[in-house]
Design brief:
This protein is of the alpha+beta class and about 150 residues long. It has one domain: Arc Repressor Mutant, subunit A (Orthogonal Bundle). It is built from six helices and four strands. The protein has helices spanning about 10-15, 20-30, 35-40, 45-60, 80-85, 85-100; strands at about 60-70, 75-80, 110, 115. The strands form two sheets. It has a two-stranded antiparallel ribbon. The two termini are about 15 Å apart.
C-alpha cells in the first residue's frame, strides 16, 4: 500500500516553515505577545512579521486579542493548539543543540516544579521508556485524524 502524500508531519512542517513562524513561536513560548515586542526581539521586517502572525492566526496556532482601544492594539496569544506545539519546539531545540551547535548563548530549561535544569525527553505513555526511532513501528491508521 502506498504511503499517503499528505501527513500530519508534513502539514505541521508546512506551518512551521511559513515566514518566520518558528521564531515567532519561540518568542510566544517565552510569553512575548505584542507585535512591537516580536519585531524588536526578532529584528525581522514588519511586513514579514505581519504575514507570519496572520498565517499563525489563520492556522489556529495564535489568537489575536485586542488589549487597547483608540487606537486599537492587539496581542497574539498561543491557543490550545499552539501550546500543544511546545513538545515539538523542545524536540527541535534539543536536536539543534546536539547536532548544529550554537552561535550564541545556549538556552537552559529549568523545571518550575523541582527547580532543576531539565532536558525534556519523549517517553512511552505505557512503560515510561524513552522513545527512539528504531524502537517504533509505523502503521497506517484507518482513522483520518490519526497518522
Amino acid at each position: 500500500m502506498p504511503r499517503p502524500r499528505s501527513t500530519s508531519v508534513q502539514r505541521t512542517g508546512e506551518i512551521l516553515r511559513q515566514g518566520a513562524a518558528s521564531l515567532v513561536l519561540r518568542e510566544a513560548f517565552f510569553r512575548v505577545r505584542r507585535f512591537d515586542d516580536f519585531q524588536r526581539l526578532l529584528g525581522i521586517s514588519r511586513s514579514v512579521l505581519a504575514r507570519t502572525l496572520k498565517s499563525l492566526v489563520a492556522d489556529g496556532i495564535l489568537e489575536r486579542r485586542r488589549y487597547q482601544r483608540r487606537p486599537d492594539r492587539y496581542e497574539y496569544v498561543l491557543t490550545e493548539s499552539g501550546l500543544a506545539l511546545y513538545p515539538v519546539f523542545l524536540a527541535m531545540k534539543q536536536w539543534g543543540d546536539e547536532w548544529l551547535g550554537s552561535d550564541g548563548p545556549s538556552i537552559t530549561l529549568t523545571h518550575n516544579t523541582c527547580e532543576h535544569t531539565s532536558i525534556p525527553r519523549m517517553t512511552c505513555d505505557h512503560c515510561g521508556e524513552v522513545i527512539r526511532a528504531r524502537e517504533m513501528r509505523y502503521l497506517l491508521s484507518p482513522h483520518p485524524h490519526i497518522d
